[in-house]
Design goal:
The structure holds two protein chains of two kinds. By secondary structure, chain A is an all-alpha fold. Chain A contains 14 helices and no strands. Helix content of chain A is 71%, strand content 0%. Among the domains of chain B are: 3-246, 3-Layer(aba) Sandwich (Rossmann fold), CATH 3.40.50.300; 251-288 and 552-587, no CATH class. The longest helix of chain B is centred in the middle third of the chain and has 18 residues, at 292-309. The chains are: A mainly alpha, B alpha/beta.
Chain lengths: 295, 587
């Protein structure tokens, strides 16, 4: 039987993305985060979104990204509702139709979705141990790096515990799956008791296990394997730098989309400068994918 | 010979507790010795283990009196846990809490990395540890996806790589299927043969270790009540009786010998005789005067009674061509066909990942079929939601702490009644009646977190029973519990079954399957590979072994008797005693 895929968990595969040095993956993660945040144009955010799905597809982790998106969809819906209330409905009640507000609301949702896919993708092709080693290489204290690695490694265990809790609750005939997010939130409230108690107990057991495995023994910690940057890593790092430069340029020349200039809707039928940046970003991301795919 | 472990008048009281968890413990273990520590839940066994590597008093708050000395000079309280863990390797009951890294090889290396060993040395030690624990080839697997036995071996491998002088193993086989347990035990036995290391093994499953350890220590209520060679302790009638009284899960063959001795049927038998040895002794005894003929007749009657049952009833659960594929493409069930009849007590057995839990989750609609259908009490589960099905099928899971949603016992039991639109008086009545049925009426106003594990287990059952379902499904109700608690839960389920409800149990515990289940369904790789009366299924050794299961000792003993021309079909010690008694009366 194939291994079960869970959200925010490593997915076993042998793709070029899996083989990258964890530091490169880190750099990629933060580059995408940086790309996601400065602009409010939903068109730009959508393009980033498509690029992310393409990477996830070629890295064979798209299923994990779909699951992750579904898992935290409710938070995204809240983002959407919150922004809609603040930037669309409130002005509307004063008789103002704010296209800027609509753009901002949509982009908030996309930004959230992009962030989720970015993190899910990173975790799906990075083992927690690689992450710990990479952090240690980046001069993060070994204790912090190890704890972070262990915590990430336990995400699937926590996820499975929460699934058990939901199953037990639903077995009593009580619903947790509502379309209405407010109802859903109230339905999930009773699950806090077993989830919190379970997490505290689990955390204590992990601490005991860490102590018994010599964690915090003192002296310098060593690692079983050494990591080093290879040709592929340099290619990805270079692409990420180009992306960062492009986005920074867009920021500094104050393209109409920044900070809030109703970019997409005012330039719907024209070639927006922002659209150019977006197209450039996608154009840069696309060759990475194709190049790596062919490796 | 060097003393590896010495405890002198050790008393430990957890902070906030008025009663010591262990009291005036005196125990010595020599280098190369293996000691089995047993006793009921709450006897202080785990606390004793924690004293040996400094978790007590360094990690857990409390008061320690007396002296713990490791390798004749190290005092845990002064050394610190990480330092002492190089000498004392501690493995806990639940391996999943000790597997901290994403691959087997990384997990085994983790301890060595923490101690700062050079890379080449780590590589070599890890390779050796994986080799001796039969984990070669599993290096890059995520340890959480291994079977229970393999996970436990992985936890042991990470200790083994460090090569400590003393191994302390707390319930290393409790969560494992029978073959997994035997695998871990046989590995430890091999390790012991070199007599270089000291082993302290805490276990309820005595049969895994009893035959090769040097000494057995029995604890009860924080004190050591017996300490001696297993053969000596089990050979002494009074001591055996004491062990039974405090709830020690004695091996079935020892129990049989004890009972037969007390009845004067046999006089002197080695209490640690193998199953083959016992069969030989008993066969010779029975053949005197042709007593074995009586046994043959009794067996035939038993078989007829059980087989006649299922043909006369309508199925309450009917599974037709059920296939289940999880998101991500994992095929968990393949073309399962099954009928369960009203009033049956059925056990689903099979190794981890065989599809048992996935199958029972279809009964109350938690999962919907990818192909095929499940009909429960005439309703197709695809057409209704869980809320409706939960009125017919009550499902509880292994860990009670993941199923208790309220801090009050009363509210917890009431929770399932929310959707039933009952009058307040009716609700109160049902809650009281249910709590009385599970023996928790006294606890109605007690906070749920102050209940014991056994009580919490019964509370989860009560929470389902209160909805008055026709079918109760209990997933792994007894894992990791002592004999008394296991019997308590199973007696309760039997009682519920006797009142006419269908009870389905998912378990690894073959002793309890043999004792309580009328029918047994064996699952392997998403398919049902055997289904029938328990005594028939448990006699199919090849099928059971293919799915890492093994019949209880007494059932294997009865099969062994067949090789002496005496056909028997015992599943429990009680049955064996009554058959043998009958043979002696008529023979």
């Amino acid at each position: 039987m194939a291994e079960r895929i869970t959200a925010f968990e490593y997915v076993e595969a042998d793709t070029v993305f899996h083989r990258l040095d964890a530091r490169t993956k880190f750099f990629m993660l933060f580059t995408i985060m940086f790309l996601v945040y400065p602009f409010v144009d939903p068109f730009f955010c959508l393009m980033i979104n498509l690029a992310l799905w393409a990477i996830a597809f070629y890295a064979k982790v798209w299923k994990a990204c779909v699951l992750a998106s579904k898992t935290v969809l409710i938070v995204g819906v809240f983002f959407l509702i919150y922004h809609a209330i603040v930037y669309v409905i409130s002005p509307l009640m004063q008789g103002i139709i704010s296209m800027n507000g609509v753009a901002r609301t949509l982009s908030a949702f996309y930004k959230y979705a992009n962030l989720v896919i970015d993190v899910a993708m990173f975790l799906a092709f990075t083992r927690s141990i690689e992450l710990a080693i990479a952090l240690a290489k980046l001069k993060i204290p070994a204790k912090v790096a190890t704890i972070l690695g262990v915590t990430l490694g336990f995400i699937p265990v926590f996820t499975s515990e929460i699934t058990d809790v939901i199953d037990a609750y639903e077995s009593r005939g009580l619903k947790t799956r509502y379309r209405n997010p407010v109802q859903k939130l109230f339905a999930l409230y009773p699950l806090l008791t077993p989830v919190v108690f379970g997490s505290v107990r689990r955390a204590q057991m992990i601490s005991v296990a860490l102590e018994c495995k010599g964690f915090g023994y003192g002296g310098e910690r060593t690692y079983r394997k050494e990591i080093k940057l290879l040709k592929n890593d340099y290619v990805v790092i270079a692409v990420c730098i180009v992306l960062l430069v492009l986005v920074s340029l867009a920021y500094y020349v104050q393209l109409p989309a920044y900070p809030l200039a109703e970019p997409f809707f005012t330039s719907l039928f024209m070639i927006s400068p922002l659209a150019l940046v977006a197209a450039a970003a996608l154009a840069v991301a696309y060759p990475i994918i194709v190049a790596f795919w062919k490796v | 010979m060097q003393t590896a472990v010495k405890l002198k008048d050790v008393t430990w009281t957890y902070s906030g507790s008025s009663k010591p968890a262990i009291e005036r413990i005196n125990l010595e273990a020599k280098k190369g010795e293996a000691i089995l520590i047993t006793g009921p839940t709450g006897a202080g066994k785990t606390t004793l283990c924690c004293c040996l590597n400094g978790l007590i008093p360094d990690f857990f708050p409390g008061t320690l009196d007396g002296e713990v000395i490791i390798n004749e000079k190290y005092i845990p309280a002064l050394e610190g846990i990480p330092s002492l863990s190089r000498m004392v390797g501690l493995v806990f009951q639940d391996p999943s809490n000790q597997l901290l890294q994403p691959t087997v090889v990384d997990d085994v290396a983790f301890t060595l990395e923490n101690y700062g060993l050079p890379m080449s040395e780590i590589e070599e030690k890890v390779r050796r540890a994986l080799e001796v624990t039969y984990l070669k080839g599993f290096e890059n697997r995520n340890p959480h996806t291994l079977s229970g036995g393999e996970q436990q071996l992985c936890a042991i491998a990470s200790i083994l790589a460090l090569d400590p002088d003393i191994y302390v193993l707390d319930e290393p086989t409790a969560n494992l299927d029978p073959i997994g347990g035997a695998m871990v035990a046989s590995f430890l036995e091999k390790l012991l043969k070199r007599r270089e290391k000291t082993f302290l093994i805490v276990s309820h499953r005595l049969e895994d270790f009893l035959y090769w350890v040097d000494r057995m220590v029995v604890m009860n209520e924080g004190e050591i009540i017996l300490n001696g060679a297993p053969r000596t302790l089990l050979g002494d009638e009074n001591k055996t009786e004491l062990m039974r009284k405090v709830g020690v899960n004695l091996p079935q063959m020892s129990l049989l010998t004890h009972e037969l001795k007390q009845m004067g049927i046999i006089k002197k038998v080695d209490p640690l005789l193998t199953i083959e040895g016992y069969a030989k002794v008993l066969a010779e005894d029975l053949k005197e005067g042709g007593r074995e003929k009586v046994l043959g007749k009794t067996e035939a009657r038993k078989g007829e009674k059980v087989l006649g049952k299922e043909t006369t009833r309508e199925p309450i659960v009917k599974v037709e061509g059920l296939t289940h594929i999880y998101p991500g493409g994992v095929v968990a069930l393949i073309g399962v066909n099954l009928e369960i009849y009203a009033g049956e007590l059925v056990a689903f057995i099979g190794q981890n990942g065989s599809g048992k839990t996935t199958l029972v989750k279809h009964f109350n609609g938690l999962l919907k079929p990818s192909e095929g259908k499940v009909i429960v009490d005439g309703i197709d589960t695809r057409e209704v939601d869980i809320a409706d099905l939960s009125k017919i099928v009550g499902l509880t899971f292994q860990n009670p702490d993941r199923q208790i949603f309220n801090l009050s016992v009363r509210k917890e039991v009431e929770l399932g009644l929310k959707k039933l639109r009952l009058e307040e008086d009716e609700k109160k009545k049902r809650v009281l009646e249910t709590l009385e049925a599970v023996g928790l009426k006294h606890a109605i106003d007690i906070p749920t977190f102050s209940l014991s594990l056994g009580e919490r287990q019964r509370l989860t059952l009560a929470s389902v029973l209160v909805m008055n379902p026709k079918v109760i499904v209990v997933d792994e109700p007894t894992t990791g519990q002592d004999l008394r608690m296991r019997l308590e839960i199973m007696d309760l389920l039997k009682e519920i079954n006797n009142k006419g409800r269908t009870v389905i149990i998912v378990t690894h515990d073959m002793d309890l399957v043999a004792k309580y289940a009328e029918r047994c369904v064996v699952m392997h790789a998403g398919r049902i590979i055997a289904d029938g009366p328990t005594h028939v299924v448990l006699s199919k050794m090849e099928i059971l072994e293919s799915t890492r299961l093994r019949p209880p000792e007494i059932a294997r003993f009865s099969l062994e008797m067949g090789s002496y021309g005496i056909p028997m079909n015992f599943l429990t010690v009680e049955e064996a005693i009554s058959f043998i008694k009958e043979a002696h009366r008529f023979g």
